[in-house]
Amino acid sequence: MINLFSLKQQKKDAAAAGGKKTSAAQLRTQKDINDLNLPSTCKVDFPNPDDLLTFNLAIAPDEGFYKGGLFRFTFKIGPNYPHEPPKVHCEQKIYHPNIDLQGNVCLNILREDWKPVLSINSVIYGLQFLFLEPNPDDPLNKEAAANLRENRRGFEANVTRSLRGGSVENNVFDNCMRSGNSW
Amino acid sequence: MDASTETAAQSGALDATAPSPAVAGSNNARPASNAIVSNTNTAAAAVAAAAVEDDDTEGEGEDVAPRFEDWAGRWDHIDKLLVRRGPFAQPTFEPCVELRDFLLEQCRILVIGAGGLGCELLKDLALSGFRNIDVIDMDTIDISNLNRQFLFRQKDVGQSKALVAAEFVNRRVAGCKVTPHFCKIQDKPEDFYRQFQLVVCGLDSIPARRWINALLVSLVQYNDDKEIVPGTMIPMIDGGTEGNCVLRFLQFSVRLFVGLSFTALFCVAGLLYQGFKGQARVILPGMSSCFECSIDTFPPQTTFPLCTIASTPRIPAHCIEYAKIVLWPQAFPDRALDTDDPEHINWLYLEALKRANEYGIQGVTYRLTQGVVKNIIPAVASTNAVIAAACASEAFKLATGCSSQLNNYMQFNGQDSLYTFTFEYEQKPDCLVCSNIPLDFACSASEPLRALVERLSEQPFQFKAPGIRGLGKTFYMSAPPSLELSTRPNLDRTLAELGLQDGAFLQVADVAVPLPVQLKLQFRP
């Protein structure tokens, strides 16, 4: 099949003109980004277009409790992507059953249910879904979840107040209202 | 006990290299690198004394020492394999003594990792006739390594594994030259890796394996007929014990042996006692399946849902994870967690304990904290020995062709009696690493990127919405809109203006293909 001894004379003259090698994570990310197909309620932007591994996402839900808000996330894709999920962080302090006050997000496909067949697109859809259907059974913000479960009206009022930068249960939240159609 | 007596006491284990008294006594047989020889005979005692003396004046004139001359019959056991033809020899194998010279003098082999597997590998390779060995490891010696990483002593704790291991083997095996590299594999340039004929890995991490695999695949060059240019393909032999393969076994039992319930049972039991399983694998970059082809068979690390950790912890590990991923960043936003720092672990332990008490959970201990945070899995010395031996044999066979090689994956389970199984991993047609053979693409320096995009929309590519990168830059992306807009001006720039030269590589993604295609630009004169 192969014998190094028989090959040894021909070793190298190799100095390739290639330049930097592209990692599997970069290739896969390039594919994911170029294939992005987002609804009009989501927008991504790249602070540095040459670095596809770091970018921002903005979600402006057009229905549900969070309609009228604009929510910002950062994405960081590690060298093990897609073996490991991207790291996603919410940049604002918001009142949400599945997002804690530090911006950690509880979304199954970002941790325990991540699979390499999923993509950036699926993560973005998953995040948007959290705003359309907050899930009280998987709480990171327990008070918000309990509220949603037991007092839907009260929860709705809390969300509305928090989005305007008001306080709920002694926590002051960031103003997340979208002004007009701006991103 | 000082180092030299300790080493001498070990000579029983490594007796294969002890010179025969007659030759060791002759004047020109002075070992190049301080070989410690058996103290039991007077002829060798002089050499041993010289070696000890050298220890005191270490580093002087080491590099210019005269070439070591082997004692008679030293390589008899290797010659038996190389100067006659066995029934399993490869078709191209021609028995000759030059093969031994190649092994001893020319063949350069790289050992990645000088830990549990690495120590065994270095010993096995050095005793099998490999003499030009490089070893690379970023780690330092921990006291918990000493039970199985036998090239290290208590006095070595805190020192570089690569340096200590190399020094030990050089001292112990006459004529062997192990060159240590105390750094990350990622710190070495391509040219460093290009100098080897073989790479053997004794690693404990998937990312490191992926990295070296991708690098070796990228070194393969193809000629005009798309055949591999001889000498650019560096075989990789990958050994692994437990940790990296335990869960893989579980998955395989489900995938490959559906219906054979005994295998499934066997593997479930495997979770109770760890450390007895291993694997050896031969990867011929560009020819056989690569590490990345089968990456999907590794399940992602066990992670707990964030909400469980945050609000409904049930087991000690939940509390420890909470301390690690929630409390630590809160308490020390500017300090990264160092899992090797006992103070850090202790902090996590105390926080986890507090939380466990809050929820009435028993069983949070310092050791468990360390185990969860560092993902520690017990290591068994004999498993390392078995796997390293298999890898060293494959290295020997690849270097000489004296026998057919492993095709291409062997798993070993020593947990309940002995079980091994060999099968062939196949190349994954859309593997991100090894199926990505660059295609030549004719173009000229003066044409705009737009012309290239237009040609990509025609046969054979038929790309409707390509995303083009190269040289670490994003040249054009069809989506998302913001990126399309900011990269659109590049469409009217010429390839030269974009900094692209003849032979440069471009990666082109499109919905039509499962992974970006690599183009190698061929400028028309």
From TrEMBL, chain A:
InterPro entries (alphabetical): Ub_conjugating_enzyme (IPR050113), UBC (IPR000608), UBQ-conjugating_AS (IPR023313), UBQ-conjugating_enzyme/RWD (IPR016135)
Family annotation (SUPFAM superfamilies): UBC-like
GO molecular function: ATP binding; transferase activity
All copies of domain UBC core, residue ranges: 24-168
CDD domains reported in the protein's UniProt record: UBCc_UBE2F_UBE2M
PROSITE patterns: UBC_1, UBC_2
UniProt KW keywords: ATP-binding, Nucleotide-binding, Transferase, Ubl conjugation pathway
Active-site residues, Swiss-Prot/TrEMBL: C106
Gene3D superfamilies: Ubiquitin Conjugating Enzyme (3.10.110.10)
Keyword Amino-acid biosynthesis assigned: no
Domain of life: Eukaryota
Pathway, per record: Protein modification; protein neddylation
UniProt cross-references to PANTHER family, sorted A to Z: UBIQUITIN-CONJUGATING ENZYME E2
Family: Belongs to the ubiquitin-conjugating enzyme family.
Protein name per UniProt: NEDD8 carrier protein
The organism of origin for this protein: Capsaspora owczarzaki (strain ATCC 30864)
Automatic annotation (TrEMBL), chain B:
Protein name: NEDD8-activating enzyme E1 catalytic subunit
Catalytic function, reaction form: ATP + [NEDD8 protein] + [E1 NEDD8-activating enzyme]-L-cysteine = AMP + diphosphate + [E1 NEDD8-activating enzyme]-S-[NEDD8 protein]-yl-L-cysteine
Residue ranges crossing the lipid bilayer per the database entry: 252-273
Record-level GO cellular component terms: cytoplasm; nucleus
Composition bias type Polar residues, residue spans: 1-10
EC number: 6.2.1.64
Alphabetized InterPro entries for the sequence: E2-binding, ThiF/MoeB/HesA, ThiF_NAD_FAD-bd, Ub_act_enz_dom_a_sf, Uba3_N, Ubiquitin-activating_enz, UBQ-activ_enz_E1_Cys_AS
MF GO annotations: ATP binding; NEDD8 activating enzyme activity
Active-site feature positions: C307
Domain E2 binding: 441-524
UniProt keyword list: ATP-binding, Ligase, Membrane, Nucleotide-binding, Transmembrane, Transmembrane helix, Ubl conjugation pathway
Membrane found in the keyword field: yes
Species, as recorded: Capsaspora owczarzaki (strain ATCC 30864)
Pfam families found in the cross-reference section: E2_bind, ThiF
Source organism superkingdom: Eukaryota
Described function: Catalytic subunit of the dimeric E1 enzyme, which activates NEDD8.
Protein family according to the UniProt entry: Belongs to the ubiquitin-activating E1 family. UBA3 subfamily.
Pathway as given in its UniProt record: Protein modification; protein neddylation
GO BP of this protein: protein neddylation
